[in-house]
Design brief:
alpha/beta; Aspartate Aminotransferase, domain 1; 3 domains; 4-stranded antiparallel beta sheet; 14 helices; 18 strands
């Protein structure tokens, strides 16, 4: 019997390419790949739908539908009396393989600040909150909603922030964000639209935050910081970014008279104070320092985040805004991301309402305090020449060292330990200034903590 594929010069090749085809989607994919890779060059005449269907053992309509889809997409052409052919397409030139992106070096131990011990994330309680919150959520919660965030979370946050941080927090003034960096982006964008040009920043802090300010068109202006916090008498510009509860990274709270002076400066000049309360829940030896925002809710933007208290992966942060900033911020947020992902908001709302959040903060506060005490006691024995500062709160300490801090950081890296120097957090690096290491005791899991401290002591002892 005559082989039906003999009527088509492409028949044999098609048999090789399409032998595993079982349905329309398989056939479309196989033909597409054969054309894209040049196996079927432009002008190749394809078998009739009847012939190919018989050859592959599938329904003729399946082949006809596949041909029709590829004609509609421009891969094939079909003319009455001429059959079906591979279209003449200009295919993109083969892209050379990209070289592998260099990966950052890995270290045995990480003692840099900025992250909690993520192994403490309360998975069971979070799952329990999710199982309760998501089935109970109204249908509207799964659609496009309020750019401020879910009302359930805003109401629970308002209650929590009022009693835990002393924040004046109306749920209508709270905006939920996808992390603190988005909050800062939104605020600086609005300030720039309102003709702001300069924002005061503490001379020590995160370079990422300064980069955000610059990217949005403002000029960050560094203001000196001493043992009483930022020099409020030197604030300038149309806004100021401050860490009043626990200066990052020096660890000092803003003194009462300077808190008052900062707020008074904002009132007199019409400036906006942005309060970054990044780790205000972790204070160990005395009563927590309340939020600066309570002194004047119309001049201070309070910002907080779940990144330190729970985990950075949640990407949940919040702003408590003055009334005059609500509409401008929401307008920018609407065009930026419309709204922050809702499901985790619902879970966090239930997590707070059920008391899980308070219990988790109490547990982790005790956990980090034990870690801090162990670090301080170990340094007193094995590195008595090192002065420890900034220990009353947060997830890091400052170690004043007698030699070059940058050299210590390099030696530590060579031994598999990642630490940071104070100069890494200085607005203008100055190797001749105060020599100190910033040691974060939050990041390592329990099984690695003692090994990390042992290696740290070895580096400090050299």
């Amino acid at each position: 019997m005559e082989d039906p594929r003999a009527n088509s010069p492409a028949g044999a090749d098609l048999h090789l390419d399409l032998g595993g085809t079982r349905g329309r989607s398989d056939l479309v994919h196989a033909l597409h790949e054969s054309i894209r890779t040049g196996r079927l060059p432009a002008g190749t005449r394809l078998p009739s739908s009847r012939t190919l269907a018989k050859d592959l053992g599938i329904a003729r309509n399946t082949v006809a539908d596949a041909y029709g889809q590829l004609v509609a997409e421009g891969w094939l052409t079909a003319r009455q009396g001429s059959g079906t052919e591979v279209a003449d397409r200009i295919l993109p030139a083969a892209t050379p393989a990209l070289s592998e992106t260099p990966q950052p070096p890995s270290y045995r131990y990480d003692l840099t600040p900025g992250s909690p011990d993520v192994s403490t994330f309360p998975r069971g309680e979070w799952l329990a909150a999710a199982r309760k919150a998501i089935p109970a959520a109204p249908n509207a919660a799964f659609g496009y909603g309020d750019p401020r965030g879910r009302i359930e979370l805003r109401e629970n946050l308002a209650d929590y922030l009022a009693r835990a941080r002393g924040v004046w927090a109306d749920p209508e003034r709270i905006v939920i964000c996808s992390g603190y960096v988005q909050a800062l982006n939104l605020l600086t964008d609005v300030l720039r639209q309102q003709d702001a040009t300069t924002m005061s920043v503490e001379e020590f802090g995160y370079s990422l935050h300064w980069d955000v300010i610059r990217f949005r068109g403002l000029q960050p202006h560094p203001v000196p910081v001493d043992e009483q916090g930022v020099r409020a008498d030197l604030l300038t510009g149309q806004a100021a970014l401050l860490t009043p509860a626990h200066q990052m990274p020096l660890g000092v709270p803003l003194a009462p008279d300077r808190r008052t002076a900062a707020v008074e400066w904002a009132r007199q000049t019409g400036a906006v104070l942005i309060e970054d309360d990044y780790d205000g829940e972790f204070r160990y030896d005395r009563q927590s320092v309340g939020a600066l925002q309570a002194l004047d809710p119309e001049r201070v933007v309070y910002t907080g985040t779940a990144s330190k208290s729970l985990a950075p992966a949640l990407r949940l942060a919040w702003m408590v805004l003055p009334e005059h900033l609500m509409e401008p911020v929401l307008a920018v947020k609407h065009t930026t991301d419309l709204l922050t992902a809702t499901l985790d908001q619902l879970v966090l709302a239930e997590f707070i309402a059920s008391g899980h959040y308070d219990r988790h903060v109490r547990r982790t506060r005790q956990h980090y305090r034990r870690r801090r005490d162990h670090l301080v006691e170990l340094l007193a024995v094995r590195a008595p020449g090192v002065k420890v500062a900034g220990i009353s709160a947060g997830l890091h300490v400052l170690l004043d060292v007698p030699s070059d801090a940058a050299d210590m950081v390099s030696r530590a890296k060579r031994q598999g330990l990642l630490v940071a120097s104070l100069d890494n957090y200085r607005f203008t690096p100055d190797p001749a200034a105060r020599q100190a290491l910033i040691v974060g005791y939050g990041t390592p899991p329990d099984h690695a903590y003692n090994g990390a401290l042992d290696l740290l002591c070895q580096v400090l002892a050299v």
